[in-house]
Amino acid sequence: MGGANIWNAVQVAESHSSEIPSSSLTVDHSLSLSDMKPRIVELCKDLFEQWSDLDESDFSLETVSGGITNLLLKVSVREENERVVNLTVRLYGPNTEYVINRERELQAIPHLSAAGFGAKLLGVFGNGMVQSFINARTLTPSDMRKPKLAAVIAKQLRKFHQVEIPGSKEPQLWNDIFKFFEKASSLKFDDSEKQEKYETISFTEIHREVTELKELTDPINAPVVFSHNDLLSGNLMLNDDEEKLYFIDFEYGSYSYRGFDIGNHFNEYAGYDCDYSMYPNKDEQYHFFRNYLNQDQPHEVSDKDLEALYVETNAYMLASHLYWALWALIQAKMSPIDFDYFGYFFLRYDEYKKQKGKCFSLAQSYLSKSETK
């Protein structure tokens, strides 16, 4: 999606639901919070008529989180009756349309929201969306591995995977990886140091790895489900008092393979620092699988089903490394956010190479065993 397509977001919202207000205003991501405030106030007044007469002092603004692709803001509005309404304004990171299909995201949100996932979509604008505010804290990578929480996440993910999103149910994983590959392999950097690093990467080798991995995973026949595809700790929120868990941010969501969503989530135990010693061991994975496969009686899950999901997840866990490695190269070129995307590429690709032998032989021996049966 090119820059011109940003306006599609507004059109998509209009075509989907006449109730979702839209505005063509944009808000500059790089402004300080105090400079951003008048723009956000103008935006809220443009989207929500009932606030058009409020004073700027009736609005307050704070940063919830700055992910490495988005900026999340909490807006509190004091209405005429003194009631305070909280909203979340999400500003898309600049140039993120190179790696994110916003149209796909906006089509899915109303259906996910109806099924009880994420925040409610209240409005869209030129470079972002307004959603209901979720009163909860963002998880940390170490939270995700706590057995009690891991069980809750697994059960919730199973429910998420049961949501039906209209449109094509073709799995998008390999299409997305090959699209990323096309973009990532034809970049040019103005910064000579970056260009030198870039030239050390063998795209012939990466292409071969992607093709080999696709050939390995195809016979696994993993179920195709609507996947979140980015279940890192920052996209999981918990209200401790109500013990309620929320999945947020569906911008990478698509129909994909079940094992990819789970394997990608396990990779995120490592956090942004990519400490892969935190990757869950077999017992921790089985605990997750039991709760995913049988919410009511996790201990009833058969060894056969556990082994099948273990093989599937750990084969697709490799695909998650390739996906985000290629994504990072595109971001190194496109994103103005101060993050070492090059370093991130090498961390993910090196981990892929480190885990490849073990995961390939696990899948191959499982598949040959199944064939002989």
From TrEMBL:
Which molecular function GO terms apply here? ethanolamine kinase activity
> Main EC class of this protein?
transferase
Q: Name one GO biological process term.
A: phosphatidylethanolamine biosynthetic process
> CDD domains under this entry?
ETNK_euk
The EC code for this enzyme is 2.7.1.82
The UniProt entry, under InterPro entries, shows:
Kinase-like_dom_sf (IPR011009)
Cellular component GO terms held in the UniProt record: cytoplasm
Pathway the protein contributes to: Phospholipid metabolism; phosphatidylethanolamine biosynthesis; phosphatidylethanolamine from ethanolamine: step 1/3
Q: So which domain of life are we looking at?
A: Eukaryota
Q: Which family does the record assign?
A: Belongs to the choline/ethanolamine kinase family.
Report what the protein is called.
ethanolamine kinase
What is the source species? Answer: Fraxinus pennsylvanica
